Amino acid sequence: MTRLVHLSDLHFGTEAPELLAPLREAVAAARPALVVVSGDLTQRARRAQFRAAAAFLATLPAPWRAVPGNHDIPFHRPALRLLQPFARYRDAIAAETAPGWGDAALCVQGLNTADHLAWQRGRVRSADVQRVCRAFAASNRVNVAFAHHPFERVAGSGKASTRHAVRALDTLAACGTHVLLSGHLHRWRTAPFVERSGGRRILQVHVGTGLSRRHRGEGNDFAILDLGPDRAAVTRMAYEAGGFRPAGEVVYRLGREGWRRPGA
């Protein structure tokens, strides 16, 4: 089993300062092979917010990979938004907006779903999906994709559906994607996707916001994923009484049709 930590929606600019140290300590205690950050590192894509996010990431005790979210594109600077939407992200966080990472057990690939022509709605780019599938096709490992926007419409979320997500899910399922991580909704959710074409079920994990005061009633959280060739354990780490603590674990088994909870 190899361990990942999944953070999302840090939203520097609306962060709760009292959560910074507990989140850092909880990540350190988990001892992950990799920390995945699925977008919205800032609230308004301001330089100071990016600097704060970068400073926090630099303190994490493990390698990390991140993708931008819709809040990481300047909203109040139309020229910058249209012509160089990811310039500030690249300057402060990472030059690559859809990075990859791998070791002997995992192949991890990011997808940049932030759309500079829409404020909240995401968009899955076919070139991103093709790149991810090429990497996974050459992998004999557990294949993990991550993006900011969810690939499903969640009832009651108030968010628009991600463009081209359903078609992308079919392609990702067919090319060997095992796990898909996302954020954006500030909600916790973990379950297997059921594909329209009858393909293998991909395990999805949405996490809420790790640091923001805007947690929409669900509290701050992140995920710990322990991944093996045929088993996955997903633990929700929720903030309570000064620290992030386990708030439930779900175990899945991988079969011929994809992931299932034992007994389901």
List the helices and strands and how they pair.
Elements: E1 2-7, H1 20-30, E2 34-38, H2 47-58, E3 64-67, H3 78-83, H4 87-92, E4 100-102, E5 106-110, H5 126-137, E6 142-146, H6 165-174, E7 179-182, E8 189-192, E9 203-206, E10 221-227, E11 231-240, E12 243-255, E13 258-260
Parallel strand pairs: 1-2, 2-3, 5-6, 6-7, 7-9
Antiparallel strand pairs: 1-10, 4-5, 8-9, 10-11, 11-12, 12-13
Describe the structure.
This protein has 6 helices and 13 strands. The protein is of the alpha/beta class. The longest helix is centred in the first third of the chain and has 12 residues, at 47-58. It is globular, with a radius of gyration of 17 Å.
The order of strands across the largest sheet is 3-2-1-10-11-12-13
> Secondary-structure element order, as H and E?
EHEHEHHEEHEHEEEEEEE
Which regions contain 5 or more consecutive residues with pLDDT less than 50?
Answer: none
Mean pLDDT: 92
Number of helices: 6
Q: Which structural category do the helix and sheet elements fall into?
A: alpha/beta
Instruction: Give the distance, in angstroms, between the N- and C-terminal Cα atoms.
Output: 22 Å
- How many DSSP E strands? 13
**Largest beta-sheet characterization:** 7 strands, mixed
Rough outline: globular
Question: What fraction strand?
Answer: 25-35%
Provide the gyration radius in Å: 17 Å
Helix content: 10-25%
